[in-house]
Amino acid sequence: MFALAPSILAADFKNLGNGLEKIQKSGASYVHLDVMDGRFVPSISFGMPVIESIRSISNCVFDVHLMVEEPERYIDDFIACGGDSITIHAEATTHVSRAISQIKASGVKAGIALNPSTPLNVLDYILDQVDMVLIMTVNPGFGGQKYIDSSTRKITELRNLMNDCGLSTDIQVDGGITLDNVSTVIEAGANIIVAGSAVFQGDIEKNTKDFLRIMKNSILI
Ligand code: DX5
Ligand code: ZN
């Protein structure tokens, strides 16, 4: 399964409904929702009321990325307001395993995110319990940053590790993904592609379709 997950962080918030309709109509199957607490990351974005309000106008998978300190405090709230998949950061809680169990107990998908400098070995005793690993390809906190090149090797190593363990867990990439580098991350092993600026700046429908076309071609290679 391959999916494009446009991040609404880069959307025009006064026309959010319109942006969401455009990405869905053009073939995106996920919406990526970046929740920032002003503590785990410097910035503050949006929370439950916004997600609850847009839930009724989209059939996409609501993919909630919690850039929040001690995310276990809010897991149930983000499921209640419409999250289909909840991703927490390995760096944000002492009790990663408990937080993942908390997400899975509600029947939604659980993801674990790693900052660029966090090594893959933090996944050693948790990999078989998660539905998705999010490899951050920028330092989290802001949209519109440049892709960190060493991420490509990290994605490849993670996909190899999963193959060795017989796992087909989703690998999501997030940060600085553009039409120019999306085939690189897919060839490295990623299958869920987050893109904010590269989808929402300019012609949203064209950008979405261009992403999906390039993704499809990269999968066929
Ligand atoms: C960064 C966020 C990303 C961000 C991606 O902290 O997690 O999801 O919105 O934005 P672009 O695609 O513009 O780098
Ligand atoms: Zn994100």
UniProtKB/TrEMBL annotation:
Pathway: Carbohydrate degradation. Keywords: Carbohydrate metabolism, Cobalt, Isomerase, Manganese, Metal-binding, Zinc. Its EC number is 5.1.3.1. GO terms for cellular component: cytoplasm. A divalent metal cation binds at residues 32, 34, 65, 174. Binds 1 divalent metal cation per subunit. Substrate binds at residues 7, 65, 141-144, 174-176, 196-197. One of its GO terms (molecular function) is D-ribulose-phosphate 3-epimerase activity. Its cofactor is Co(2+); Zn(2+); Mn(2+); Fe(2+). Coiled coil: none annotated. It comes from the Bacteria. It catalyses: D-ribulose 5-phosphate = D-xylulose 5-phosphate. The active site is at 34 (proton acceptor), 174 (proton donor). One of its GO terms (biological process) is pentose catabolic process. It holds the Pfam family Ribul_P_3_epim. The keyword Cell cycle does not apply. InterPro entries: Aldolase_TIM, Ribul_P_3_epim, Ribul_P_3_epim-like, RibuloseP-bd_barrel. Belongs to the ribulose-phosphate 3-epimerase family. Catalyzes the reversible epimerization of D-ribulose 5-phosphate to D-xylulose 5-phosphate. This is Ribulose-phosphate 3-epimerase. It comes from Candidatus Galacturonatibacter soehngenii. The gene is rpe.
